[in-house]
Structure formats: structure tokens, C-alpha cells
Specification:
single chain; de novo design (two linked rop proteins)
């Protein structure tokens, strides 16, 4: 009968540890899926914006055909955005896209008849809506990454989660905040 108490204690400890590992693993899987879903949302919005860019270029091109460098920069930034793999590359592409969009809107400001064009105004409104959705998706993604990274780094999880295949994820950050902080300036 004396051996029964130590056996019960050992079984209870093994059961508690097993339940903890099971719960931790499931929560990490859930967070990992949530981060993947959030990244997918970002890529959908970046693709949506990239699909709007050619229409915007065509609308502006009719009024400002001599601004070839601006259009080339926007096209290059669009291609870079579509080719970005992961948050780090997407952040760098985001810097270039924001600078390119500023330049195209700066060109548009020089043409009042373009700004009055219904097509241009609609494209501009869709682009603003898309930018808002990108920001919301980015916040959701970064929130998920924060939760996942925290769960991975806390003790005692840090002792075993990497062995289960979980790793920290990168935040989607703009590498040059100044590139998106300034409003576009018209300089001719």
C-alpha cells in the first residue's frame, strides 16, 4: 500500500505535464495558423493594390505622358511588391511602393483636369480604401506575430517549442518609416 501513493503522485505529475504540453502545442498551432491567415490577408490586399496600379498609371499617363520616369518607378515598385516573399521583403517593397505612389500623385496634382476626372477619382478612392485595408491587415498580422513570439519565448515553453518545429516570425515593418511619413510634394 505504501507504493501506491508515490505511483499516484508520479502518474498525476505525468498527466499534468502531458496536459500542459498538449494545451501548449495546440495553442501554438492555433497561433501559427492565425499568423499564416493574417499574412494571406496582407498578400491579398497588396495584390489588390498592385492590380489598381496599371489603371491609375493609364489614367495619369494620358495627361502627363512626359513623366516617363515616374511611370517606370511605379511599375518597378508594383513588380517588387508582387515578387516579395515574406515580411522583410514586403516591408522593403512597401517603402518603394509608397514613394512611387507619392510621385504619381504629385504628378496628378499638376493637372487639375485629371483631378476632376471621374475615373481618376474612383481609382484614387479605391486605392485609399485598399491602403486602409493593408494597414488593418498589417496590424492583425503583427498582433498575431506578437502573440506567437511571446508564447514561444516564455518559460518553460522556450525549452521545448523549437523542438516541435515552432519558430519566431518576422513582423511586417516598413524599414524606412520616413518614406511613408511625409505627404507628397509637387516640385516642378
Amino acid at each position: 500500500m505504501e507504493w501506491l501513493i508515490p505511483v499516484i503522485i508520479v502518474v498525476a505529475l505525468v498527466l499534468i505535464i502531458g496536459i500542459y504540453l498538449w494545451a501548449t502545442y495546440n495553442s501554438l498551432v492555433t497561433l501559427n495558423v492565425r499568423v499564416d491567415e493574417a499574412w494571406s490577408d496582407i498578400t491579398v490586399q497588396l495584390k489588390r493594390r498592385a492590380d489598381l496600379i496599371p489603371n491609375l498609371i493609364e489614367a495619369v499617363k494620358g495627361y502627363a505622358a512626359h513623366e516617363k520616369a515616374v511611370f517606370e518607378n511605379v511599375t518597378k515598385a508594383r513588380a517588387e511588391t508582387l515578387a516579395a516573399q515574406g515580411p522583410a521583403e514586403a516591408g522593403a517593397a512597401e517603402n518603394h511602393m509608397q514613394q512611387a505612389l507619392k510621385s504619381i500623385f504629385a504628378v496628378a496634382e499638376a493637372y487639375p483636369q485629371l483631378q476632376a476626372s471621374q475615373n481618376f477619382l474612383q481609382l484614387q478612392a479605391e486605392l485609399v480604401d485598399t491602403e486602409d485595408k493593408i494597414q488593418a491587415s498589417r496590424r492583425f498580422y503583427n498582433g498575431g506575430v506578437r502573440e506567437l513570439n511571446t508564447k514561444i519565448k516564455v518559460f518553460p515553453n522556450t525549452l521545448f517549442v523549437r523542438g516541435l518545429g515552432f519558430h519566431e516570425r518576422d513582423f511586417f515593418e516598413v524599414t524606412e518609416p520616413a518614406a511613408i511619413a511625409e505627404p507628397p510634394r509637387v516640385q516642378f
